[in-house]
Amino acid sequence: MKYINELFEFLPHRYPFLLVDRVVEVEPGSRIRGYKNVTINEEFFNGHFPGHPIMPGVLIIEAMAQLSGVLAFETKQRRPADGFTYYLAGTDRTRFKRPVVPGDQLVMESRLLADRRGVMKFECQAFVDEDLACTSEITCMEREI
Asked: What homologous superfamily does CATH list for 4-144?
């Protein structure tokens, strides 16, 4: 389990763009599970949409990509402090199944599908309660910084 302060060691993101609150399970080289608590205090709700707040789909994808980045770092046994980062390189087969709204807990899972020459592909799912909210195949690219 990784709490928010530990996530700072894996992800270069900070408020308001850190979209993972906790990692609850991680198996390096295989899978990871974590979540984001969605609150009305999120800045994006000011404009998306007034009177009918919905978490933007691109931020759901970003949250799954950040969680996948933690799995990538754990798998490679590296950290940003070692001079490496992972960039979102692409998404495939993305589907949104239900809106994510304030008060929801977005539970995310990512499974490593491929790891070739610094490019990693993940199968990701996001749930609210037991309902599937989003699925996507996410590709991340390792870069030395």
From this structure: Hotdog Thioesterase (3.10.129.10)
